[in-house]
Specification:
Helix content: over 70%
Largest sheet: none
Strand content: under 5%
Number of domains: 2
Radius of gyration: 17 Å
Length: 170
């Protein structure tokens, strides 16, 4: 299969996932559109040398996440804002007004704000997990071991369960 055909098939199959991924990396709608275009351009170029070293799905996610991480790092240089590790994210995700947080839209906004503040490696694992990739597949994309991925996923899920559990009484 040639580069154009392979890209077209991948874009059709993974287009929605690329959009979600971009949303996870970029909050600004205009910059997010630019990021999606950058990802598609990089994906097309990458199929010129893709030799089946991994599944096509893993390849698409690897390319997309690498472009997105570069985008985040570049944007941070232009507009510095502190990124947070999982240990530091507690204060960012802490509940404020419990009545207002019952609104699903606010929860999603808060979750995305939390994701946007994660360091790129943690954000990448989180976004891939939300796309239903296994720990082994996430490891293929990130270069981490499946065990390291599983530990990160567990920590992220525990943090989010604690911070976003609406069944708790104030």
């Amino acid at each position: 299969m040639d580069q154009d055909a392979r890209y077209t098939a991948a874009a059709r199959t993974f287009g929605a996932a690329i959009e979600r991924l971009a949303r996870g990396y970029e909050a600004d709608a205009e910059l997010r559109r630019d990021l999606v275009q950058e990802i598609h351009a990089a994906l097309w170029r990458s199929f010129g040398y893709f030799e089946g070293q991994c599944s096509e799905r893993s390849w698409v996610y690897r390319v997309a996440h690498n472009v997105a991480v570069t985008h985040v790092v570049t944007r941070r240089r232009l507009r510095p804002q502190a990124l947070s590790g999982l240990d530091e994210i507690e204060a960012i995700a802490a509940p404020g007004d419990t009545e207002a947080e019952t609104d699903e839209r606010r929860i999603v906004t808060r979750l995305l704000a939390t994701i946007h503040r994660l360091k790129p490696a943690d954000r990448q694992v989180m976004l891939l997990y939300l796309e239903d990739l296994t720990a082994a597949e996430i490891g293929e994309v990130t270069g981490l071991s499946a065990n390291a991925v599983a530990v990160r996923i567990h920590r992220i899920k525990a943090l989010l369960a604690e911070r976003f559990d609406l069944r708790k009484e104030p």
